[in-house]
């Protein structure tokens, strides 16, 4: 996983990062069914091209390269991966 969204996103879910992403790998979007149910946004670890376009646009500084995650938020790598998997399962569970 190239980038991870950490704790500052919880409750904020500002979607500026979604709009900045050139490969559409940050979900859920505001218009998606799961948006309200999720606490934060998640990055698709496969689709992410490691461009970093999402980092400077995040108003709460919640996005980090996985190797630069602050120690207190290291567990967000797993949270992000599990959250994205849950998002995919819900999306295709129709």
Q: What average pLDDT do the residues reach? A: 91
- Report the structural category: alpha+beta
- H and E order: EHEEHEH
Please state how the strands of the largest beta sheet are arranged side by side: 1-4
Return the CATH architecture: 2-Layer Sandwich
Number of DSSP E strands: 4
Shape: globular
Query: What does the radius of gyration come to?
Result: 12 Å
* Low-confidence region ranges: none
Distance between the termini: 27 Å
How many domain units?
1
| CATH topology annotation | Alpha-Beta Plaits
CATH uppermost class: Alpha Beta
Strand content: 5-15%
> What's the main sheet like?
2 strands, antiparallel
The DSSP helix count reads: 3
């Amino acid at each position: 996983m190239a980038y991870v969204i950490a704790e500052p996103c919880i409750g904020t879910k500002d979607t500026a990062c979604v709009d900045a992403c050139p490969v559409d790998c940050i979900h859920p979007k505001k218009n998606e069914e799961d948006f309200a149910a999720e606490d934060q946004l998640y990055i698709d670890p496969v689709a992410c091209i490691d461009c970093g376009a999402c980092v400077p646009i995040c108003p709460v500084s919640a996005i980090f390269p996985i190797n630069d995650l602050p120690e207190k938020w290291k567990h967000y790598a797993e949270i992000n991966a599990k959250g994205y998997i849950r998002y995919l399962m819900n999306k295709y569970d129709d």
